[in-house]
Amino acid sequence: MTPRLRTLAGLLALTIVAPAFPRAEQTGAKAPAHQFPTTPELADMLGFLVADKATPGIVLGILDEDGSTRVLSNGAAGAGARPLGPRTVFEIGSINKTFTGTLLADMAAKKDVALTDPISKYLPAGVTAPSRNGKQITLLDLATHRSGLPRLPDNHVPADWRNPYADYTVEKLYAFLSTHQLRRDPGAEAEYSNLGFGLLGHLLARAAGTSYQQLVKSRVLDPLGMTMTGYALDGAIAEWMAKGHNKGEVVPFWFATEAIEGAGGLRSNLDDMMKYLKAQVGPANTALQKAMRDAATERAALPGGAAIGLGWQLVKVGDRTLVAHGGGTGGFSTYIGFDPGKRVGFVMLTNTTSFPDDIGMDFLRRGPPLPITAVTVPPAVLKRYVGTYEAAPGNNLVIALEPDNTLTVKAGNNVRFRMFAESDSQFFLKRTPWRFTFTTDEAGTVTGVVVDVEGTIRNARKVS
Predict the structure, then answer these.
(1) Is 364 helix (H, G, I), strand (E, B) or coil?
(2) Nearest to residue 62, comparing CAs of 364, 365, 369?
């Protein structure tokens, strides 16, 4: 249920940065008309992700400008599982929080609750809500990660660390609240909190006089026709469930109790998640769609220049606002993101923990491949560029010649990116708007490569 808010897998950075919240990107350039690459180009990229063992399997859904959708998949759902595809079910982790944010917006619009209500209003008698300097935690504080509550409770040691939320009971949650001392005033500062969102879901269910599972089903899942989304691992969901992996090994599924269901525990497939994505953009024709728009509206600033709605995280890219959330469990990594202004978006589902890539956000942020016509370069010329290039000590690029006589570039544990030639010495990527120019000495020996990283020039010398 940890957030998966990735930055671009930088070819020269060698490490994947996964901040708690996304950072705003300062650029005045407007996104091109078509946000995502062609289906064959995307399929090629997914192939590298699986071949380089970034994940056993990946399913990617694209919502294009005209309202049409595309679905791509590569790899496998795991031993004994049904073939990987849009019906395959994944744990979606913290994407669950966006459902809770939507429920809060819907219930506030219907006057079932108010965003400014203190959480004490919905706790049972005998349970004390923590406060600080006279400031009470509100429902809005929980939904914007500004409650002052920690990421996880300190009164819980899981019986099985491979399934850490399965035995965190409501009684433990109440005991924690009644004794916890806040480290900061509610509303003062953002700190990502699974505990806070679990509590929010529980309180909304109490306000509605039902269970959280029934609340999300009746108010979100059923109206959208999301029949393959739920908490229970039974029926068709069990039949289509992928196997979760950690470092290539199958790991146990995660289960959530009612104390944490607002933060995570949902399982879903791409078919359902594309319904959820499509309902986020365009005209708001229903009360639910209006609540979705409200949930994706900025409520508070976050570190790094980003912002947050009711669960959703927002990042500015030039004059655009992108809305996104990631999800991670012990064996799954997932991501959903969209641009409400352009009405485009994506859903990415993988069956591995800590998936080291952000293919969907790459194109949502930066747009499609550079408008360059690729040319064919003889294999003999390409072979001259094969080798290792050092950008800094311990920071290398590896250029390889693939069986189809094209070059790829790889940095550290990142997957390969295919390179396309615009001349016999200049190449570009379709994953990022980056260009490479190989250099030679007077004898014609390749000495290095100059990399244009969106206008920033970096040099790497050939070392082998």
Answers:
(1) helix
(2) 364
The answer to whether 264 and 168 are in contact (CB under 8 A) is: no
Q: Are 440 and 430 in contact (CB under 8 A)?
A: no
Task: Look at residues 256, 245, 241 and name the one whose alpha carbon lies nearest to residue 100.
Answer: 256
Cα-based angle 14, 16, 20 (whole degrees, multiple of 5): 150
Give the span between the Cα atoms of 420 and 428, in whole angstroms. 5
Q: What is the dihedral of CA 236, 330, 96, 190, to 10 degrees?
A: 180
Q: pTM of this prediction?
A: 0.91
Express each pLDDT in 280-300 by its tens digit. Answer: 999 999 999 999 999 999 999
Average pLDDT over residues 52-62: 97
Helix (H) or strand (E) holding 408: strand 407-411
Please write the tens of the pLDDT for every residue from 314-343. 999 989 999 999 999 999 999 999 999 999
Cα atoms in the Cβ-side hemisphere of radius 13 Å centred on 329: 33
What does the DSSP assignment read for 300-349? EE-GGG-EE-SS-EEEEETTEEEEEEEEE-SS-EEEEEEETTTTEEEEEE
